[in-house]
Design brief:
227 residues; mainly beta; Jelly Rolls; seven-stranded antiparallel beta sheet; four-stranded antiparallel beta sheet; 2 helices
Length: 227
C-alpha cells in the first residue's frame, strides 16, 4: 500500500471532544467534531428531506429490503447505480445537494488535514436512518466514478462501525464507536475499503442533539457523473 500522509491534526485548543485518530492510511476519525447546534441543524434538515419529493425508503438489495432507510440528495442511489430520478420509488427527481452541506464536507476535510479539501465538490449525499435493530453489512462504496473521499457525519445514537480492508469482508478490520457529532473520512488508499455497522446502541444519543432515538448518518460523495 502506498504511503499516504495528512497534514498536522488540529491543535489541542480547537474544542473538539477528542483528537484525530488515523484508522488506516486515508481513513481518519475525529470524535465530537459537530457541535450540538450543527447536529440539530442536520436533524431538522433530515426531517425535511425525508418528506420528499422522494421520501425516505428502504432500498431493496438482492430481493430484500435493507434495515436502514435512506433519503438521497443530488443523485438518487439505488442498487447499484445513481440516477437523477428515483425510478425504484416514485419516479420523482431528488432534491438538489445543498451548498451548505457541501461546504460542511469541505470544512470536515480541512479539519482532518486533507490536502485537497478546498477543491472537494460532493454532488450527492446518502442520508441513512438506523433504528435500534438496523445494521449495514460490509460493503464498498464503489458505484461512484470519482474516487474523491467519502465524508461521514453521525448524529444520535452511537453505533459500532467496522472498517476493514480493500480486498474482502474478512479480517483485518477495526471496530470503533461512532458517536453523535463524530466525523469520519476515508479516501486515498482506503477509499474502497469494506465497511459496515454491526450494531446500534439504543439510548446513547445526547439530549441536545435533536434526535431522541435512532441514528442519522450522512455520507457525502463525489459521483463523477454528469447529466
Amino acid at each position: 500500500m502506498s504511503e499516504f500522509k495528512l497534514s498536522a491534526p488540529p491543535s489541542a485548543d480547537t474544542g473538539f471532544a477528542g483528537g484525530l485518530v488515523q484508522i488506516a492510511p486515508g481513513a481518519v476519525h475525529l470524535p465530537g467534531w459537530l457541535g450540538p447546534a450543527q447536529q440539530r441543524r442536520l436533524v431538522a434538515a433530515f426531517r425535511e428531506w425525508s418528506t420528499g419529493p422522494v421520501p425516505i425508503r428502504a432500498a431493496t438489495v438482492r430481493g430484500h429490503p435493507m434495515s436502514v432507510r435512506t433519503v438521497c440528495l443530488g443523485w438518487h442511489w439505488q442498487p447499484y447505480r445513481y440516477t437523477r430520478e428515483a425510478s425504484d420509488v416514485n419516479g420523482a427527481r431528488v432534491l438538489p445537494m445543498p451548498d451548505w452541506l457541501a461546504e460542511l464536507g469541505r470544512d470536515g476535510l480541512t479539519a482532518v488535514g486533507w490536502p485537497e479539501a478546498p477543491t472537494y465538490r460532493p454532488d450527492t449525499a446518502l442520508v441513512n436512518y438506523y433504528d435500534a435493530q438496523a445494521r449495514m453489512g460490509m460493503h464498498q462504496d464503489k458505484d461512484e466514478v470519482s474516487l474523491d473521499p467519502v465524508v461521514s457525519f453521525s448524529v444520535g445514537d452511537a453505533c459500532v462501525f467496522r472498517f476493514g480492508n480493500t480486498e474482502n469482508r474478512k479480517r483485518p478490520y477495526h471496530d470503533l464507536d461512532l458517536r453523535s457529532g463524530d466525523l469520519f473520512v476515508f479516501g486515498g488508499p482506503s477509499r474502497l475499503a469494506f465497511h459496515g455497522v454491526t450494531r446500534i446502541v439504543p439510548g446513547s444519543a445526547p439530549l441536545d442533539c435533536g434526535l431522541t432515538e435512532g441514528r442519522i448518518n450522512i455520507t457525502l460523495r463525489s459521483t463523477g457523473l454528469t447529466d
